[in-house]
Amino acid sequence: MKSPQPCYGQRNARLGTRSTPERFHYSPGPPYSDASTVRKRNPVAGAAKSVVGLFMTCFNPTETINSTNFGESEEFKPPSVASDATGSNRDRRRSSGRGVYGSPQNSTHEREPGSVKFTMEEIYKATRNFSPSLKIGQGGFGTVYKGRLENGTLVAIKRAKKSLYDKHLGAEFQSEVRTLAQVEHLSLVKFYGFLQQDEERIIVVEYVRNGTLREHLDCVHGKVLDLALRLDIAIDVAHAVTYLHTYTDHPIIHRDIKSSNILLTENFRAKVADFGFARMGADSDSGATHVSTQVKGTAGYLDPEYLKTYQLTEKSDVFSFGVLLVELVTGRRPIEPKRELKERITARWAMKKFAEDDSISILDPRLERTAANNLLLEKILELALQCLAPHRQSRPGMKKCAEILWCIRKDCKELSDSDFHSLSSNSRSYSVSEE
Ligand SMILES: Nc1ncnc2c1ncn2[C@@H]1O[C@H](COP(=O)(O)OP(=O)(O)OP(=O)(O)O)[C@@H](O)[C@H]1O
């Protein structure tokens, strides 16, 4: 695995702080019977290029700044083998071949994974009574603590805000537990169990120690992820989401694919987290094409068709994945309110530059302008363009996205193995004037 390069300039290097785009969580009126499904209609082909100009008439983002503490506590220093057996074994398994779908593994408890109910005593012990020094994050759901189970396993303990009567949070908790209990994949955070007692709602998942993708794109950890590594991360995410859409008993739509929900291991393998908004997709065996449901997700990542029609399909995750691809190559957040108007919606700006044959100008300024990077950039943007198609019928499925990304990686590897040396010695270091 390649090591990241040193960071040239830290755009948002406030260690221990994190910006989170506002999550949408509202009930926009009918049609919205959550369980209803609608019969198949003739697909309407959409022109992918018309994606330019379509973006988000819908967003008026606000940003909240949440305080986070990423300090390693002395008591929880890694890694005895037991302390991270799950994570490192998984990394080892995966290094033998990407794209392998996971199979259930043993839980840290004797009971089946997902059915594990923790006691308050176990949680207090694991978090040293929710010690502020073990707080590692804060999200819409509540506060996240680092903890250690009795058997030595490091875990992330997500404690819901105490709002017993908050229907949304209650539903989010149920949804996360239900979904996590059903899934097992190398690129999804592993679920250890939960606690539901009086006003407490707690979820215990695998601790992923290298922070979120967003933090890495912001250089919070002081290194720049090179483009090949970013491609690997996109492939991991594509595999995880393909698994959710295709290989679970019933399709699961994540609904909140975004860079702050992608956690990275020490080897820069990605794990998709946060299933608070996940829900079952339509049952295609019965001919249903979508579910009609209230809109949930995060500003900047939301599928405009879902936003307009309340019709949810797996392709809404594909749209969010397209936004993520643009985020990966530009390093920018999906919405950048402080920039000039034409650059505020990053995907719109990037797709316009791509259509004008000026992709190189949107490459993250921290990345080198080399022939190999330019090729990668073009190919990733081509896929992003398809994912961001205004109509879901024109977007590829997630499995197709994963296959395309595999091919991109293969092509780039071949280029770097053969032509790349001559290409690069022939010199094309693109000189790009930053706007
Ligand atoms: N399994 C984990 N391992 C390590 N750190 C984690 C884990 N889960 C969450 N975190 C940390 O806690 C932070 C908050 O996570 P959480 O999922 O509650 O919210 P979020 O996704 O960042 O925001 P939002 O709820 O608005 O989507 C994350 O950004 C990450 O820094």
From TrEMBL:
GO molecular function: ATP binding; protein serine/threonine kinase activity
Alphabetically ordered keywords of this record: ATP-binding, Kinase, Nucleotide-binding, Serine/threonine-protein kinase, Transferase
Group of enzyme by EC: transferase
E.C. number(s) listed in UniProt: 2.7.11.1
SUPFAM superfamilies found in the cross-reference section: Protein kinase-like (PK-like)
Domain Protein kinase: 130-407
Keyword Repeat: no
Binding site for ATP: 162
Region (Disordered), start-end ranges: 1-38, 68-114
Catalytic activities: L-threonyl-[protein] + ATP = O-phospho-L-threonyl-[protein] + ADP + H(+); L-seryl-[protein] + ATP = O-phospho-L-seryl-[protein] + ADP + H(+)
Keyword Cytoplasm belongs to the record: no
The family this protein is said to belong to: Belongs to the protein kinase superfamily.
Protein name: non-specific serine/threonine protein kinase
Organism: Manihot esculenta (Cassava)
